[in-house]
Amino acid sequence: MGRFTDALAAPGLGAIAEIKRRSPSAGDLRPDADPALIARAYEAAGAAAVSVLVDERFGGTWDDLRAARSTTSLPLIAKGFFSAEEHLRTARDAGADAALLLLRDLDDAQVAHLLSVAASLGLDTLVEAHDADELARGIALDAPVLGVNARDLSTFAIDRAAQLRLVARIPRDRVVIAESGIQTRAQGAAAELAGADAVLVGSALMRAPDPAAKLAELLSRPLVKVCGLTREEDVAAAAAAGADLAGFILVPESPRAARSVLPVPEEMLSVAVWVGEAGDAGADLDQVHTVEEGKVRGREAALLRDGEQVARVLDLPWEGSDPEHWQRAAEAGGRIVLAGRLGPDNVREAIAIVRPWAVDAASSLESAPGIKDHAKLTAYVEAARG
Known about the structure:
The protein is an alpha/beta fold. It has two domains: 3-219, TIM Barrel; 223-385, TIM Barrel, CATH 3.20.20. The chain has 14 helices and 20 strands. The protein has helices spanning 3-8, 35-45, 62-69, 85-94, 108-121, 132-140, 160-167, 185-194, 203-207, 211-219, 232-241, 325-331, 347-354, 374-385, and strands spanning 14-19, 22-23, 27-28, 49-53, 76-79, 98-102, 124-129, 145-149, 175-179, 198-201, 223-226, 245-249, 269-275, 285-289, 300-305, 308-314, 336-338, 358-361, 366-368, 371-372. Helix 4 links the parallel strand 5 and strand 6 (98-102). Helix 2 crosses helix 3 (62-69), helix 2 (35-45) packs parallel to helix 10 and helix 4 packs parallel to helix 5 (108-121). The relative contact order is 0.10.
């Protein structure tokens, strides 16, 4: 594997931050973009790699790639409509570490040939699929890095749900990239939990007042969950405050039980909370607590996506305490969702000690069981997001 592939295969969710002046679907994004300045800023903000559009339809040139190469040590991928050896040679000579190959525009023989040429030139590749048939071709061609674009290049429509279904199909011995349609931390996390090693983000960054600051925001952790939601107005308050996950407790014995999973804005993910086993509530994720006799719930829970565990939830005992809770959580491996009487006053300290993937609060944000105090909720989210 080359530098590009190695960077994306690193632990955690990585980002390929893109430089493009315009989009065929959205028009001008940042006509005056300076690739040298933006590439350097992306590196400082934590990008794993930088994508540079070199096609004139996106307002790009090969000089943009050369400019980015002059200011960053990150791996660079040249993006364009490449179909010939000369395109790959030009990419390498301009400073690229990788090149894009679009399955939509190439037959299997062309892709196989270009993969071989790229390898001989020391270039990695990102082989991009837009639908199930293209993805099957990419897998069969043994492409080491596979991307799934959520944007239909014919209609320019975004379908994130279809993208996630395809991402989840890719063998785990490949490096997986979710491309397009990522606007928020929760959407990036959805791709991560489906199996993506990295997201490729372009338009959302180039539209932002500060592209690098937007990138840093998308990559920042922990995610913030507000649980025990029972009212639409509380869901709206959580979204407005910047929460990433909305939790709905579907356990009748709970003092903050919800009748159902309420609709959440597309920038968030919904979580159905169960005890014993998950039902079918139509949530993005399920949180299933263990059963403990005489208690509403057990202490630990699994966070599931389509029935597969993707994180551990570490909580305090029901109506109990544990002075070692944070320290135990800090020693646990994998993705950790930290819960247990977190609120505006202590969540920053908990994050500093545990470094969790997400934090979760419910009762400390209430004015009454199941009724959120919007001031407390907002203060908690702001504190958790730093």
